[in-house]
Amino acid sequence: MNALLVFIICIPLIEIYLFIKIGSQIGALNTILLILMTAFIGIIYARYEGFNTLRSGISQLIKNEMPIYEIVSGAAIAFAALLLILPGFASDFIGLILIFPPTRKLLLNSFSKKYSKGLKKKNFIEGEFEDIDDKKKDE
Predict the structure, then answer these.
(1) Overall domain count for the chain
(2) What is the structure's pLDDT at 6?
(3) What is the model's pTM?
């Protein structure tokens, strides 16, 4: 079975289970308020972290450096904001992990180490070329 299909089926089941368990403990109204509060706080904090990442990326560009970490971090913040907006406790937990800089940096570093091992250095041959068509036109 496709892993994506399992993921798409399991996530809503986990969210529904958590809604029922937490709703039975704190009540339906408090559960709804908690979901709305995490979405609101998540959006505000995602905006704050997004501006910090943008500011850091601009400073990298001013130094003539490629802001690779800032680009990936910005994408992670956007994904975290989406997870915080979606109703659910499991998605909120993952969104909170992604939105805080220390945990986001740990996750991004672990992924970058995992995928950079597969990349090998390419051998390049340097040389010069001459366009033959231009010579024929000149003659």
Answers:
(1) 1
(2) 86
(3) 0.71
- Burial (CB < 10 A; 0-12, 13-18, 19+), residue 54, is middle
Is 31 a member of any domain?
no
- Measure the CA–CA gap between 39 and 50, rounded to whole angstroms: 16
Nearest partner of 22 among 106, 119, 14, judged by Cα: 14
**pLDDT tier at 116 (50, 70, 90 boundaries)?**
low
Would you state the torsion angle of the CA atoms of residues 22, 24, 26, 28, taken in this order, to the nearest 10 degrees? 100
Q: Which pLDDT does position 99 carry in this prediction? A: 86
Residue 63 structural domain: 36-116
Contact 38, 84 (CB under 8 A): yes
Evaluate whether 56 touches 70 at the Cβ level (below 8 Å). yes
Pairwise CA distance, residues 38 & 128, whole Å: 59
Q: Residue 52 in contact with residue 105, Cβ under 8 Å?
A: no
Residue 91 lies in a domain: yes
